[in-house]
Amino acid sequence: xxxxxxxxxxxxxxxxxxxxxxxxxxxxxxxxxxxxxxxxxxxxxxxxxxxxxxxxxxxxxxxxxxxxxxxxxxxxxxxxxxxxxxxxxxxxxxxxxxxxxxxxxxxxxxxxxxxxxxxxxxxxxxxxxxxxxxxxxxxxxxxxxxxxxxxxxxxxxxxxxxxxxxxxxxxxxxxxxxxxxxxxxxxxxxxxxxxxxxxxxxxxxxxxxxxxxxxxxxxxxxxxxxxxxxxxxxxxxxxxxxxxxxxxxxxxxxxxxxxxxxxxxxxxxxxxxxxxxxxxxxxxxxxxxxxxxxxxxxxxxxxxxxxxxxxxxxxxxxxxxxxxxxxxxxxxxxxxxxxxxxxxxxxxxxxxxxxxxxxxxxxxxxxxxxxxxxxxxxxxxxxxxxxxxxxxxxxxxxxxxxxxxxxxxxxxxxx
Length: 415
Hints:
Blueprint: E1 4-5, H1 31-47, H2 49-55, E2 57-58, H3 60-68, H4 87-100, H5 102-106, H6 109-121, H7 124-136, E3 158-161, E4 165-172, E5 183-189, E6 195-201, E7 207-210, E8 225-234, E9 238-239, H8 251-280, H9 297-329, H10 333-365, H11 377-386, H12 392-405
Antiparallel strand pairs: 1-2, 3-4, 4-8, 5-6, 6-9, 7-8
């Protein structure tokens, strides 16, 4: 399905926009259907995942299949024609896709987060308009973070009022999904310093996306630099994102739980690769007294430990999904803090098992597992890259302050 590759010679080139889908996306109706669709897609995505990583091939066809499947609209409210499925299910979907290809699992993260934000902060007219876009198969990218800021939430991108539209200027980086998005939500500040999502058309004049993502992991998240030179955004597409954080809402926890699900998927894939390699390719150690690597008692113990910790992380992720569902249904200081704490616990465990499992893969599988032909280092590279999204050392601080001092987590997209 993959048809497009970017080579070093054009790494700094501006990427033209993609056409909107010619057919409406499918609308999923049940949790069971969502999981079944995710599993079917994952089987297809896994086939060329290693090659896409090795050659940095854009998942063009895979992404179209993914967004047309209905999985990108599963948190659209029922009142607007969407499935409004549980965040437990949404997390499972992202985990399943990420186990096949974590770049594909990461791409819809900001799309789904923006859908959640629209539910929280938009008026009725804007909800009807933008949810209809999502249900039709429109993909949101993102232009949130800025490379040179002191802190992640320090933004220099701003917009000015120009009547029926605003004009946006600035520069963004870490823009996952922007290369092949149809609409690009831009975090931009108004003249009062409040952050909005200015959702621009990907082909808007002055909006340039440059293919310069060079990380050693998560290579095909379709990220890059976004340049904004007097980009016009209609006020119908100007979403007051700041309202999701000036009072308790589940918006931050939703952005975070998707990150945790990506990490769990990476961990599960690494453990599966370890088991397969040990059973089919690894040799028994000279002093083990056994004929096969899979009979080594230390290897057996280590695999058991990895599965246990992955299962624990998965259970806590499900608990977090339930807490997010409660906070979405009834947002107040208590339910939102409980959701944030449950998601922070999940983020810690999924980060740690992703790093541990991708390290243990080589220790247990042995030297031949490092051969380039297997490309197993992609699991470690993906885990190490994605888990840097926000530091788990601060998650421990949030938990300790909550349990010891009754201090609720801060309200922002990283908490």
